[in-house]
Amino acid sequence: MSGPAGHTSLDPTIANYPTAHDLDPADKSSYEKYVSYWRRHFQEVEDDFELERGLNHIFATDWVPSLEVIQDALQASRKINTFATAVRILEALENKVSSRSQYDQYVKALQPLLSELGVVPKNDLGQFDFVREKRWWEE
After folding, report:
1. Side-chain half-sphere CA neighbours of 62 within 13 A
2. Distance (Å, whole) CA 119 – CA 111
3. Do 113 and 74 form a contact (C-beta atoms < 8 A)?
C-alpha cells in the first residue's frame, strides 16, 4: 500500500504524509502534489489538534506555504472556531517570509478572505494593558 507521499514501507496510520524530503524542487509535479495534500488536509480538518499538526508541518519546511494553503488553513481555523490560531497563522507567515514586502503581498492577496472571516493581523489588534486583579493578601 502506498501513502500520499509514495511511502510503501510505513504503517498507513502513522507518519504517512508528505515531508520536505519528498519535495523535489526541480519537479513541479512534486510541489503540486505536496500543496494539494496539505490543502486537502486543511479542508478536511475537524479538530484543533489536526489543524495545529498540519500548521507545524507546513511551517517547519524550508519553503513558504503557498497562498492557497494559507487560505485553507485560515478557513479551517475559523471553521473550528479558533480565532487565536487564525491570528497565529498570519504571525507565523510573517516570520517565515524573507521580507516585509513579501508578507505585505500575502496580506494584500488574503485581504478579502481576512475580512470575510473577521481575522486581523496581530499588529492590528492593538496594545493591551495588563490588568491585575486585587490580591487580598497584599492589602
Report:
1. 7
2. 9
3. yes
Residue given cell 520536505 in the structure block = 20
Indicate the length of the chain as a whole number.
139
Q: What is the pTM of this model?
A: 0.75
d(CA 123, CA 133): 26
Task: Divide the 139 residues of the chain into consecutive groups of 10 and give the mean pLDDT of each group.
Answer: 46 53 67 85 91 90 88 95 92 93 94 92 74 68
End-to-end CA separation in angstroms for the chain: 68
Q: Is 109 helix (H, G, I), strand (E, B) or coil?
A: helix
CB 73, CB 51: distance < 8 Å: yes
State the DSSP string of 21-68: GG--TT-HHHHHHHHHHHHHHHHH--SHHHHHHHHHHHHHSSSPPPHH
